[in-house]
C-alpha cells in the first residue's frame, strides 16, 4: 500500500505540471491585455507599459514560463493582479466553500441515487422503474443554471425556506446556504449514478453467491447489505469518482448563480480580469482535487473488494 501511494503521488507531478503548462499557455495566448483590463480603456500607453513591466509581462513568453515553473516548485503562487493580495491568502478563504459544496453534492447524490437504484432493481422494467428513469433523464438533460434558477424562485423567493444567495457565517448557515446549490449539482450526476447502481444490483441479485445466501436462509437485509449492495457499490464508486470532475466544473456555474464566494467565482473573476496568477492557481487546485479523489477511490477498492490488489 505504501509503495502504491508513493508511486501514485509521484505520478501527480507530471499531471500537475501538464495542467499548469496548459493553463499558462491558454491564458497567454487568448486575446486581451491584463494591464489594459486593470487600468481601463482610457489608460495611457506609458501607464500600460509600466504596469506590464511591474508584472513581468514585458518579458518573452519563455522567460515568463520558466519563472512560473520556478515559483510553482518553490510553492510561491504569486500575488493577484486584480485583488492585490497573495494567492495563498485568497485560496484559504475561497477553497472551504467549494470543498463543502462538492462534499454535500456527493452525499446528496448518494442519498438520492442509492434508494432509487435499490427500488428499481427489485422490479426492473416495471412502471416505477420506467418513470424514475425518465425523470432522471430529464434532470440530466437540463442545464445546471436552469435548475438552480428554478430552485431559487421556488424555495428561496416564494417559500422562503432557503436564502437566495450567500454563504452564511456559521457552520449551520453554511450548510443551509449550500443546500440548494448542492442539490442542483447532485441532480446532474444522480441519473448516471443511479443507472450504474441499478445495473450492478440487478446483476448481483441474480448471481450465484446471492442465490446461495438465500438458500442458507440468510435474512433479506443481510443479503442486501453484505452481498448485493457491497459488490454493486464498486461500480457506483467508480462512477462517482469520475463525476467529481463534473462537480468541479459545475461549481463554477452554481457558485456564480448563488453568489457563493468559492473557487468557482474566484476563477471566473480571474478569467474576466485576465488575472494570470488567479487562473493558474485555481486550475491547479481543481486538478489536485480531482486527482486526490481518484487516489482515494483506488484505496477504497481494497476495502470493498478484497480481491483487488494494488500492485
Automatic annotation (TrEMBL):
It is a multi-pass membrane protein. Residues 95-297 form the ABC transmembrane type-1 domain. The keyword Transcription does not apply. GO terms for cellular component: plasma membrane. The chain crosses the membrane at residues 9-29, 99-122, 134-159, 171-193, 237-261, 281-304. The keyword Glycoprotein does not apply. Pfam families: BPD_transp_1, BPD_transp_1_N. It is found in: Cell membrane. It comes from the Bacteria. Keywords: Cell membrane, Membrane, Transmembrane, Transmembrane helix, Transport. One of its GO terms (biological process) is transmembrane transport. Belongs to the binding-protein-dependent transport system permease family. PANTHER family: DIPEPTIDE TRANSPORT SYSTEM PERMEASE PROTEIN DPPB-RELATED. This is ABC transporter permease subunit. The lineage of its organism: Bacteria, Pseudomonadati, Pseudomonadota, Alphaproteobacteria, Hyphomicrobiales.
